[in-house]
Amino acid sequence: MSYKNNKKGLQVNKHLRYIIVLMAVCAFIYYLPVISGRLGWISAQNSLNSLHDLYGIDFLGLVFFAPVVYSAYALGVIPAILTAFVSMLILLPHAILIDTYPNALFKPTAFVIILSAVGAVVAMLQTSEQQHRQRIKEMKCLYDIGKAAWDSNSIDEFIGKAVTIIPLATQTPEETRVSITFHDQVYKSPSFEKFPNKIVENLVVNGEVVGVVEIYSTGDIPYLKKKNYLLKTLAERIGGAIRQVELEQSLRGYYEQLEKEVDIRTKDLEQVQEKLIRSERLAAVGELASGVGHELRNPLNVIRNCAYLLNMALTEKSDEEAANTLKVLDKQIDIANKIVTDLLDFTRIKPPSQVRANLKNLIEESLSWITVPEQISINLNLNGHAKTIRTDPEQMSRVFSNLISNAVQAMNGKDGEVNISTDADDEYLSVIFQDTGCGIPEENLQKIFEPLFTTKPKGIGLGLAISKRLVEQNGGKIEVASQVGKGATFTVKLPIEQRS
Questions:
Q1: pLDDT value, residue 1
Q2: Which domains are assigned to the chain?
Q3: pTM for the full predicted model
């Protein structure tokens, strides 16, 4: 602070030196006729003396307006009046010793009055100009605070900008420091330090006092108190801006939430639309499949009967190649029959007839329907969960046999294992089918239960779709996990019968 006071004192001393120099120059000019006479320049003296009373005006005395106006502009009214009195003292010897007309002393007195009046007017104009500039700075400060609120994405960012803007609204920004406390968090202007002189104003947001605004200055207390209206206006503007930022943050959060909700609803609508389109297509496919299935079933039965009769007509010495051909024909008829059965079952799944069934018996019955190659081993481990469940035995046997058949096919004719195990919790009894086959790619995991989706060279992709519908009809659910090259795991969860 002492450094800043010394700096201010040096500026005043600089102006005083300028005034002294101007006064000396003006005194030299005013007494130039006398100096010319002393030097013997009579003609110059006479010419210059005429300027002392040209049309009744002392034009050489007018030069004293320069130091008075400068003093008024730089230092104010009182220094300007003092400069005018000093000018009178400089004019006094000339009036006493040189001027010969009566009432000569009236001239310096009139001069000091005129100079004082001019100095006062200039000082007031200067003060008015300073006040005008100050008001412009204050208005710009308020505008900048509003702009900072508009550009800020958070309250922290806004208040951080505000503490750097406020000092610029004062007459001495370099001698002003600002501190804003908001909800126990303090924000300070750059190079902040507390000075003895300060003014404080409460920070009010939405009718609630949430902090304070403090302005510290090296200036005196009267100046700060005189500027207290500015602090009140700033505190009100900052409180309003904070409220604006809070509302914008809330509105931005609402918009983001609304966008998320719209995205979710849009995705839901797209999924519903896709399901609707898929349902319409499947309905059409189902209607076609039902008709085609019935039409194909009769020719297949005729072909099977013919193959059976041919096989009966062949003797032991008959052509072995013909016998093998009949076996292949019979096997292909089974495949065709299964496709027809799947098509018909998909379009006419019956409601389940739930009875109490033994889980072990269901799994063993399912295994009896499947021909398992010698290189594949079936491992059964019920883990003590051979509980009685309430389900449709026929439908669950179909589900289990389909999952086991898929597991066997996943080996692609190679050695492998199919592990069938169980697990249970309070709600579900789980049957787990785990194979060591080729696995299912991740992008296909969400598609394998869709009708008509298949990656096999044979089949039409209805097995898992039918299995899923059968499980869900019986109050359960089916889940899948897989890793390519290591196998797949299907888990069928069936509800445990709750006894009251």
A1: 44
A2: 2-132 (no CATH), 160-252 (no CATH), 351-495 (3.30.565.10)
A3: 0.44
